[in-house]
Recover the amino acids of this structure.
């Protein structure tokens, strides 16, 4: 892997300044690859971007030095206090043509390698594995839709405890980067990522892969990567998506082919074991207990832990007419309304549980909803 | 204005000849039709908004001093970033340039006033209500809009009533800008002194003429975009809602068709101011006047065909990416020509470095850094990596703060003697320059590193590897903010007193008609048009 000389240069110049301010040393478990330059590339595209950036920096630095050495020479020499007498030239067609044409040629030289990379980035054909990535406020959903692992589907959200964010606990090395479950992909395989979103625009970004693709509600876009090294790579949502924009990181775990197969087997077994039977009759207590977890994972960000919402933006559930009226609540959960997204991606059991929970929390008392009712309402 | 209130007790007797020609007290300002009074109001308005926007910026930087959430909830943090952007762009930078236009265009072309004096009054007086709507939006339920200054759909649909207030405010400001532009275009095209052909106009007038056309072309586009947002929010339309057949990305296309020319609206008059100042302090005519005019026009025309470079990560076809990448890179050429011309003007001059010149030279140096990062961002593959990171934040602050704002400072120091009749405090002015330029770089240079290393923008909290540079940046930002108090002191001191300014205080050899009138410029100037050779 080509290491950048610029990176080294910048580091040498600035390391001393930074070390004075450095926070607690990062443990070996996770070492950020850069504080000054682009992260160490792990894919061919990221490497091309890295090299393009190096090339641009070098060309720009040379022009900068050339142009401004003239200016500072002039500032030094041609000042009135040194007795400089002003010349009177103010036109030269030759010079003006020269400094229009030369930049034009430089720009063409810059554009050529960039064009190659643009074309390569867009080629999402012949992928080994296709994963659909869905942006939610504020977490990511992964569906393996083609290739080994087809059918696997899970949500991935921030795993950093609230206490670290609010300053009660010491921050860990992967503060705000760690997730409940990373996207797992095999090494050296072409992974096609199809992005979409459930509510507002998000952007799925892994710097080390050179991949950033907006996830747009109602539309599918795609991008790809082929990771060359195993390891866990972190990224974050890059498009402003509301309140918890900074709290929906992305982690991709790149593993060997054998490890990947083992992971797929384990994940499938786990999903089979967790399968909920929507026809089973649940007790209210069971639904409330399950519903509280669903609420914390999906609803609390907007409607708040106390069910009071945020005035003007997110309505309160405490004393809410919609929560009281069963058909209304089922409809809004399945279809969404304004800022409220549709939650039809959740299972009938999860929906019934969360509905029952909200009907019996925050001072509400209005009975229960059974999974079968959601199953019926979906039809 | 017929309502003349005689006021013999007014303290400026004998100061200038026309003291009794205009109303006094609040009527002078509310009913103002005089271009100088209106210009003054624009400038004070934008200075006020500059400090409000600045306080919001310090709120952002305070939160980012250390990782973790210390001061604000994330939803309020997003309001801060959004409102900082909206206020600085629409409340501080744009009205400041209109203030300069009002003051200087009639003086520079030898016209007695602006073409439409009453519309001029209305253009200004639309702004305070708009500003009020924006500031009040912080106090409505749900707070101010937190969708970013770009107001991307469909996030805007989730916002509270603060969003509607912002939309109304932008409509009002847009109307004000359009009227101001009509006024400027008419004044420049119809009211030049005999003998002043277009190619003899001062560069500031030229750049504003082109800017005014840009404004008329794109402000209605912004109005359309935010009106569609409004109807999507309240009247059940689905312009940007995929479920109803709309497209969220269409908002971005419409917005950036406004948004990209908008960034040139904020920089072209700055080029004009710098082009006026450099020749005067180099004691040498501007190099390549004609090519400066053509370069400005080229930049303006190119600005209409590059908008989608803000949208490379939305996922457009490969041909689209290549077209917008090439078109964007072309802008580097006329911009380069301008920088070369300024340096050629300085070369073999006889330079002195009073505050206006310091800010102008500082502008060239620091703005060019922003120009280079712009060229780097124009490359689609690099842009995809850096889109929505602090690299972009650093880039546009290099062109907007070190570009537009420094040029506004340069222009203020340059024309303050003409406006007030007094020389400003040179020592304080120089201190303001050095503090500004040093703290500016401490605040924004490290943001390039943050962006390259992968810190997204509009983040209330960040991962540990970004902690060091955020701390440095916050220190710089507070230093920069405090330095601006010096500017207020210098301006107020110059208004209150100071050495009497000569009519032509900078001894500009061919500096323009504004130096042929007394300092301070009397209430009415060029009632008889001057003749330009």
């Amino acid at each position: 892997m080509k290491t950048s000389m610029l990176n080294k240069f910048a580091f040498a110049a600035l390391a001393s300044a930074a070390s004075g301010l450095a926070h607690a040393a990062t443990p070996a478990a996770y070492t950020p690859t850069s504080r000054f330059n682009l992260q160490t590339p792990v894919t061919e595209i990221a490497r091309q971007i890295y090299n393009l950036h190096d090339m641009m920096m070098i060309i720009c630095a040379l022009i900068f030095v050339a142009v401004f050495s003239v200016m500072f020479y002039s500032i030094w020499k041609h000042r009135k206090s040194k007795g400089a007498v002003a010349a009177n030239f103010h036109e030269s067609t030759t010079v003006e043509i020269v400094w229009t044409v030369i930049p034009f040629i430089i720009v063409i030289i810059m554009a050529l390698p960039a064009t190659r990379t643009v074309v390569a980035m867009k080629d999402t054909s012949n992928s080994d594995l296709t994963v659909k990535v869905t942006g939610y406020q504020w977490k990511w959903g992964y569906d393996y839709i083609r290739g080994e692992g087809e059918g696997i589907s899970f949500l991935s959200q921030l795993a950093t405890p609230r206490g670290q964010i609010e300053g009660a606990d010491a921050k860990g090395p992967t503060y705000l980067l760690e997730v409940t479950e990373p996207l797992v992909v095999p090494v050296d395989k072409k992974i096609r990522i199809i992005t979409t979103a459930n509510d507002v625009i998000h952007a799925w970004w892994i710097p080390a892969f050179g991949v950033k693709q907006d996830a747009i509600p109602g539309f599918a876009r795609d991008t790809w990567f082929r990771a060359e090294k195993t390891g866990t790579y972190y990224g974050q949502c890059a498009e402003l998506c509301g309140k918890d924009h900074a709290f929906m990181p992305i982690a991709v775990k790149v593993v060997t082919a054998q490890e990947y197969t083992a992971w797929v087997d384990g994940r499938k077994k786990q999903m089979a074991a967790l399968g909920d039977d929507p026809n089973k009759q649940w007790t209210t207590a069971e639904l409330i207990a399950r519903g509280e977890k669903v609420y914390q994972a999906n609803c609390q960000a907007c409607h708040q832990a106390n069910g009071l919402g945020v005035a003007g933006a997110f309505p309160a559930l405490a004393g809410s007419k919609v929560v009281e009226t069963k058909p209304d609540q089922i409809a809004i959960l399945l279809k969404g309304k304004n800022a409220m997204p549709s939650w039809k991606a959740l299972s009938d059991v999860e929906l019934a549980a969360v509905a029952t929970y909200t009907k019996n929390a925050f001072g509400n008392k209005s009975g229960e909803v059974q999974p079968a009712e959601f199953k019926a309402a979906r039809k | 204005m017929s309502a003349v209130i005689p006021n013999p007790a007014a303290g400026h007797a004998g100061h200038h000849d026309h003291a009794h020609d205009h109303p006094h007290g609040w009527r002078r300002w509310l009913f103002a039709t005089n271009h100088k009074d209106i210009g003054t109001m624009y400038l004070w308005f934008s200075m006020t908004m500059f400090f409000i926007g600045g306080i919001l910026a310090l709120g952002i930087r305070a939160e980012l001093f250390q990782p973790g959430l210390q001061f604000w909830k994330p939803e309020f943090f997003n309001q801060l970033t959004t409102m900082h952007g909206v206020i600085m762009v629409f409340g501080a930078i744009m009205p400041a340039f209109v203030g300069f236009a009002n003051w200087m265009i009639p003086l520079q072309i030898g016209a007695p006033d602006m073409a439409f004096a009453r519309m001029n009054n209305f253009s200004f007086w639309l702004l305070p209500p708009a500003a009020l709507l924006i500031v009040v939006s912080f106090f409505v339920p749900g707070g101010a809009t937190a969708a970013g200054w770009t107001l991307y759909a469909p996030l805007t649909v989730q916002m509270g009533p603060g969003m509607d207030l912002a939309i109304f405010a932008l409509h009002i400001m847009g109307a004000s800008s359009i009227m101001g532009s009509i006024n400027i275009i008419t004044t420049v095209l119809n009211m030049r002194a005999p003998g002043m052909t277009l190619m003899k106009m001062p560069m500031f007038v030229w750049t504003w003429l082109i800017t005014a056309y840009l404004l008329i072309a794109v402000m209605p586009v912004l109005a359309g975009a935010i009106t569609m947002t409004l109807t999507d929010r309240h009247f059940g339309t689905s312009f940007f809602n995929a479920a109803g057949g709309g497209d969220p990305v269409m908002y971005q296309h419409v917005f950036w068709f406004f948004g990209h020319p908008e960034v040139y609206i904020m920089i072209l008059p700055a080029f004009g101011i710098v082009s006026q100042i450099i020749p005067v302090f180099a004691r040498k005519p501007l190099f390549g006047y004609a090519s400066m005019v053509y370069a400005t026009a080229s930049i303006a025309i190119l600005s209409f065909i590059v908008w989608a470079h803000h949208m490379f990560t939305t996922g457009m076809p490969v041909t689209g990416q290549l077209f917008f990448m090439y078109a964007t890179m072309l802008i580097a050429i006329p911009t380069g020509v301008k920088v070369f011309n300024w340096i050629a003007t300085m070369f073999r001059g006889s330079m002195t470095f009073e505050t206006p010149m310091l800010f102008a030279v500082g502008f060239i140096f620091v703005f060019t850094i922003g120009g280079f990062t712009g060229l780097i961002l124009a490359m689609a593959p690099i842009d995809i990596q850096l889109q929505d990171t602090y690299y972009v934040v650093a880039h546009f602050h290099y062109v907007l703060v070190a570009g537009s704002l420094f040029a506004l400072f340069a222009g203020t120091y340059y024309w303050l003697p003409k406006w007030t009749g007094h020389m400003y405090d040179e020592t304080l002015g120089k201190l303001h320059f050095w503090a500004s330029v040093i703290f500016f770089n401490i605040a924004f240079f490290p943001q390039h590193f943050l962006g390259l290393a992968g810190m997204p923008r509009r983040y209330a909290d960040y991962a540990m590897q970004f902690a060091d540079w955020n701390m440095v940046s916050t220190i710089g930002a507070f230093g920069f903010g405090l330095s601006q108090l010096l500017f207020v002191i210098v301006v107020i001191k110059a208004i209150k007193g100071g050495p009497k300014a000569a009519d032509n205080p900078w001894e500009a050899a061919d500096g323009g008609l504004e130096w042929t009138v007394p300092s301070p410029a009397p209430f009415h100037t060029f009632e008889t048009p001057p003749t330009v050779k």
Notes: Chain A touches chain B through 108 residues (CB under 8 Å). The CA atoms of residues 2 and 47 of chain A lie 8 Å apart. The first helix of chain A runs from residue 5 to 19.
